[in-house]
Amino acid sequence: MSNSFSCNAVSSSPKIRVSVIGTAGVPACYGGFESLVDNLLDWTPPGVAYTVFCPAKKYETHLESYKGAHLVYLDRDANGAESILYDFDGMRRSLGADVMLILGVSGCLFLPYIRRRFKGKIITNIDGLEWKRDKWSWFARRLLKFSERMAVRCSDVIIGDNRGITDYVASEYRAAAKKRVELIAYGGDHAAKVCDGSLYESYPFCKEPYAVTVCRIEPENNIHVILEAFSRLPGRQLVAVGNWQNSAYGRKLKEAFSAFGNLHLLEPVYEPHTVNWLRSNAALYVHGHSAGGTNPSLVEAMNLALPVLAFDCVYNRATTEDKALYWKTADDIARIIIEESGRFPETAAAMAEAGKRLYTWERIAGQYNALY
Hints:
Helix content is 35%, strand content 17%. By secondary structure, the protein is α/β, with parallel strands linked by helices. Strands 3-4-2-1-5-6-7-8 form an 8-stranded mixed beta sheet. A 6-stranded parallel beta sheet has the order 11-10-9-12-13-14, sandwiched between helices. Helix 4 (138-154) links the parallel strand 6 (121-125) and strand 7. Helix 9 (296-303) packs across helix 12.
């Protein structure tokens, strides 16, 4: 087996070798963890050397390094069931590192085995409560719950990206009382505001005031509720960006709601300028995520100074400090848009203030760097 850390041997002074495990790699194309790593690399302190594991099939060009990090490509898929072995391969190849930064719990069922062989520090970001997501089968949920338990038991530091997550860890696991549990969210200031007319030709419906939502099309993101609400408001435009074709749920929704002239259901947009343009020019950001912790798209919308209409759950309230507008049903969304639009400017100002104070990459990277 090749040594993933041999590149650091030529360094003039010893560095803390941090191995990043569990992401779909960098350069980031999509996803919260990928954006996290991409931005952490921008704030690498002089005494740290990163190695990032990437899925070989995802990248046409296999770079040797990126933003100073050494890249190692694995012949496994980073998503789905194969992600378990993908993560395990990354762990096995990281036994010579000083720190394993594990993002997500997919492969953490192997941590008892790894813990006996690894002498360094294990830091695990458990992400959201993945085992609670509706999309998983009963068996997958049980496996993910077990992996979460092993992550808490075997890691030196547990990271939760939201107060709701850290409170859950403290109450669910006695072992957490003896662990260091850190609250570290995501940055959102990489989302650049683009307020111009450059894309009106491609998106002419954006010339009128519109709401926007950007998400994976999954039941726990409540996109069906959002679409139902706006279908009752023919005078209000909604731009919904997501992977409609990836599931029966998404395909059914697109077929059912495409007939409404005020609903513009766009396929995923990965080009940063375009997605930032679509969000920056919106009058309202609608956030439907109900599972997980601090959601990257939410803190990005906050940093873009958008008024936020968020699904009412503990995670979203913690992220927005109880200063957004909240909903549970389609009726709630419709009522707020019709009756409470006068509150949008003050809500936008509150979101911008919290975004700049809490969700900048300089702050987030500083918290990670302190753990190494």
